Amino acid sequence: MLKNKTIAVVVPAYNEESQIAMVIETMPDFVDRMIVVNDCSKDRTRGIVEGYWSSEFNKGIFIPDASNQKFDGKYERANRIVQELRIVEEKYFVKSEMKNAGDENERIILINHLKNSGKGAGVASGYKWARDHNIDCIATMDGDGQMDPAELFSICRPILDNEVDYVKGNRLIHRSSMFVIPKIRFFGNSILSILTKLSSGYWRVSDTQTGYTAISLKALQSLSLHKIYKNYGYPNDMLVKLNIAYCTIKEIEIKPVYQIGENSKMKIGKVIPRVSWLLFRSFFKRLWIKYLFRDFHPLFLLYNMSFILFIISFPYLLKILNHAFILKSQANPVTVLAFIFLAISAFQSLLFAMWMDIQDNDRLYKD
Q: What global pTM score does this model have?
């Protein structure tokens, strides 16, 4: 606990028998709960975590379950509806079990998924436990030990000071990033960061694939946790969801950590196409929900106008290319002029929309 606020760290883990002990033993003392989510590991991850229940590392402060909080009175109808929705949403979370003797006093919470469901699903399960117990600041650290625990305080501090709603680490701005991060990962991270800027609306973020983050209880309560993307694209999905909820964000420089015994399970060739498609869909979701249904903004019209104009110009481009490369003749000047006019108009609309998007969301990014 820091500044009279409770702190929990969600630790998604899959086959981390060689690393999970290090994560538990190096966790800072101010962390009130370590929520280890075992994603149906095939190794000894579960047994190793359970082995710490009788150790000094498992002594925690009393934190009651607040999921069954009573909301009586005529002014509490909205809270009662939210509570009812959460009960309905229970069935959409990954099926899991808990074996803790008493999670109100134990520092190490172990949630065992009954089916391997992905890293994002593990984070969602951990977030749910923290939300149900009204934890003030919820951080995430991977079970492979790639996050330096000494940097946890700097990640949590802006949340504890009520400065922002969400904090994420940024390895790409560290001076050593190009030398420490494997080249293929550095390239893939950079590509996905560019796509995430456009999709999420947080135009100033980078290193969008980091799992070293912290979120406030208020921000967590604004999200539909069961809808968090279940695989490696969950950090990108989180940024889109946070932007739709008008959450403020801050980035903290962290060290890139590699070659400490971790065994990466992420396949770059599979992750990039899947996450790119996720971001493509998420962009339109953000556009319609945030800038039409919740609060109309002209950028909604400009973005859609640019897309429509690009689509209309495409047949004219095909005619021009057909004349140039197949018929070996000059295209009709009217066709060429029509294409030029539509393409320029579409490009201008897109630039204006992006400029408005940047201006509107700049207030959500805190230096």
A: 0.92
